[in-house]
C-alpha cells in the first residue's frame, strides 16, 4: 500500500491506495482503490494487474458505492412482527441457537436446508467456511445457485475427466477460431472463462486473421463483434452440435491424435452421431444443414480452434448433453488440451486436479441420495434449487422447516420465485447471512450482516482454475471491519458450532479444529516434492488465523508451493502479499493425462448417464417447436439480482424490458414502449416492450434479477426501479434431468398487450 497526499476533502488526512481483486464477477479484474479514512475516493482499474492490465467495468467502479450504500446492513436484525429490529450480535446468535436447535431437535437434521448464493463462490471466507457449516449441519438439503447455472458443465466434466472443476477453458489468446454458443462475454465479462477485457481479446483474435462464430437466439453484444452469427432455436444446441459431430465422423475429419490413446468410448460417440445428420437436426435447431457442415469443416481445418459454450447452453433441457458435446468436438478436432484449443488451467491452491495422485482418481458418482419429494439425484452433494419450495411445502418426515441462506436471493434467482417466496413465509425459522433486506431475506427470522466487500480479503480459488492464464492474486481487506463485529468466517464458524450442537463456542478453538483437519488432508495430497513434518508446518503457520492460515497452507502444499522449505522460490502467502498486482504463472500448458482423476485414468468420452440421455434427445427430434418461448439476457450494469440499489447503475433508461422481434410484435399487436402481459404455466408479469430485430422470431427475452416491488424489502433505490421478475415465469418443473439444473431459457409463454 502506497501513501500519497490527496487533493480532495480533509487535507490533514492522507489518502491510501490499495489493490484489490474485484469480487463481483468471474473476470477477477485488479482494482486500484483510493481511500481516505473510511471513505472511498476512487476505484480504478489496476494498470499493473497481471491479468486485467487496467480493465474495469461499470460494476467494478461501483464497488465503493456498495460499501457506502446506506441500505447495506451493518447490524444484525431480528424479526419483530412484520418488520425487523436491530439486535446485538450476542442476541442474534442466542436466537439462532435457541430456534435452530429446537427445529433440529424436533424434526432432525434434514429439516434444515441451506442455500448458497453466487457471492459465496467469490469470497475467500465464504468459500472456505460455508463448507464447514454444511458439514456440521449434516443435512441432505443443500442447495446452491450452481443448479440455476453451470451444474451441467460440472456433471459432464466430472464424468469425462473425473472432477467437477476440470473444465476445459478456451485458450482465446492463442486460438485462430472460436465457435461460441450461449455466452455473451462482452456483457457478462465471461463465465467458466476468467479473461478480463474479453472484447480486446476477441478483437485481437480477428486482427490476427482469426474467426469468431456466435450461436445465440439473440444478436448479442458479443455477436455484434463476431465474424458470423446464427440464430438458434432455444434449447436445441445439442442437435446443432451433434450435427457437427456427425459431419466430422461422416467426412472422416475426426483427428483426436495424441489423446486417442487416453480416451475410452470414441467409437460409441461416432455410432451415436449417426442419427443426427445436419439434414435431420436443421429442422429442430433452425440452422441450415449447409452451415452446420461448413462450420464442422472449418473447425477441423483450423490450425487452432475451440468450441466454447456457457450459460445459455447449460440452462436448458439438454444442458448436460450439450456441455458434453462441446468437449467431444474439441477432442475430435484435436483441440482438446492443446494451445489455442480448450485447455486445463492449473490452480495454485485447492485445485483437486493439481494435487493427489496424477492421472487417476476416484472419479465422480451421482445420486448417492435423492430429494425427498421428487426423488431427484444429488450432484456433488447438492440437490436442485428447483426442489426447494416443494421440500418446504410437502408434509411428512424430512420436510424442510428451517433455512439458512448464505449470500443468495433465490426468490428472484430461481424458477417460480413466487411459490418459493410463499414457502419461505411458512418456515418455522430462517437465518440469512447477507448484506441487504431483499426479496429473500425479508422472510428471515434473523439476518446477520456480512462485512462489506471492501472488508473482505480475496483469493479467487475457483477462478484460478478457470482462467486463460495460470495466475495467483491475493488481496487483503481494504478496510478492517468495525471493531466488535465478527468477520464472515467467524460468523460461519459460530453457525457451524450451533448447527453441530456445540452451542456458541470458542471461535479460535473451532478455527484450530478446521485447520487441523485441512492440514491432515493437505499433507496427504501435497504435490510439492517433499513437504515438511506436520509440526514444522504448524509452526510456520502459527502467525496466521482463519482463511489466511488455510490459504497459506493450500498454496504452500499446492503445485507451485514452497512445500514449507522443500522448494526454493515456491509460492507462499507472504510472497503473494508482496505482489499486490498478482503473479503470472504463465500460459496454459497441456495437462492430459496428468490432470485426469477418472478411475480408468482415461477420458471417459461415452459415460453411461450421458449416453442414456442421448436416447431422450433422439426421441425429442420429432417434437414440434413451441410458438413463443422466453429466454433471458444480461445487462452490463446489473449483477444478478443484487446491485440494483446503486443509483449510478440504475440511472438512465429502464433495462428490464422485453425484447420482441418486429414480426412477433406485429402479430401480437405490440408497439415499442407499450406494456406487455407475459404468461407462463407458473405466473404472469407485466413488462415494457422493446421491439428489435436483435432477437429471433418466436423468442422473447427478459433479463433476470428484477422484480423489486415486493413488500418489506429495504432497498430504496431498487424498489424505485423495480422491474419485473422473469423467474416468476420460469417453471420449476423444467429441468435437465442429469444435473437437476433449471431450464431458464426456452420457457413457453404467451404474450398480450396490457389493458
Ligand atoms: N431467469 C434467470 N435466472 C437466473 C439467471 C438467469 O440468467 N436467468 N442466472 C442464474 C445465475 S448464473 C446465478 S449465479 C444465480 C444467482 O443466484 P443468487 O446467488 O441466489 O442471487 P444473487 O442475485 O447473486 O444474490 C446474491 C445475494 O448475495 C448478497 N450479497 C452480495 N454481496 C455479498 C457479500 O459480500 N456478502 C454477503 N454475505 N452477501 C452478499 C446479495 O444481497 C444477494 O442477496 O441466478 C440465476 N438465475
Ligand atoms: N453484467 C453482468 N455480468 C454478469 C452477470 C450479470 O448478471 N450481469 N452475472 C454473472 C454470472 S453469475 C454468470 S453465470 C455469467 C454468465 O455469463 P454468460 O455465460 O456469458 O451468460 P449470458 O450473458 O447470460 O449469455 C447467455 C447467452 O445465451 C443466449 N441463449 C439463451 N438461450 C440460448 C440457447 O438455447 N442456445 C444458445 N446458443 N444461446 C442461448 C442468450 O441470448 C445470451 O446471449 O455472467 C456473470 N457476469
Ligand atoms: S468485469 Fe467483473 S471483475 Fe471486472 S470490474 Fe467488472 S464486475 Fe469487476
Ligand atoms: Mo452465475
Structure description:
The radius of gyration is 25 Å and the shape is globular. The chain has 755 residues and is of the alpha/beta class. The protein has 26 helices and 30 strands. The model is unreliable at 1-9 (pLDDT under 50). The N and C termini lie far apart (59 Å). Among the domains are: 1-68, Phosphorylase Kinase, domain 1 (2-Layer Sandwich); 163-357 and 597-618, Dimethylsulfoxide Reductase, domain 2, CATH 3.40.228; 506-579, no CATH class; 626-753, Barwin-like endoglucanases. The protein has a seven-stranded mixed beta sheet with strand order 6-5-18-17-16-7-8, with helices on one face. Strands 29-22-26-23-25-24-30 form a seven-stranded mixed beta sheet. Iron/sulfur cluster binds next to helix 1.
- From the N-terminal CA to the C-terminal CA, the straight-line distance is 59 Å
**CATH homologous superfamily title of the domain at 163-357 and 597-618:** Dimethylsulfoxide Reductase, domain 2
Helical fraction:
25-40%
Q: How is the CATH topology of the domain at 163-357 and 597-618 named?
A: Dimethylsulfoxide Reductase, domain 2
Q: What is the class of the domain at 163-357 and 597-618 in the CATH system? A: Alpha Beta
What's the number of extended β-strand segments? 30
Low-pLDDT segments, ≥5 res: 1-9
What CATH architecture of the domain at 163-357 and 597-618 do you see?
3-Layer(aba) Sandwich
Q: Biggest β-sheet, characterized? A: 7 strands, mixed
So how many helices? 26
Query: What ligands can be seen in this structure?
Result: ligand MGD, iron/sulfur cluster, molybdenum atom
Provide the spatial order of strands within the biggest beta sheet. 6-5-18-17-16-7-8
Average pLDDT reading: 96
Q: What would the principal axes of the Cα set say about the shape?
A: globular
Rounded radius of gyration (Å): 25 Å
Tell me the structural class: alpha/beta
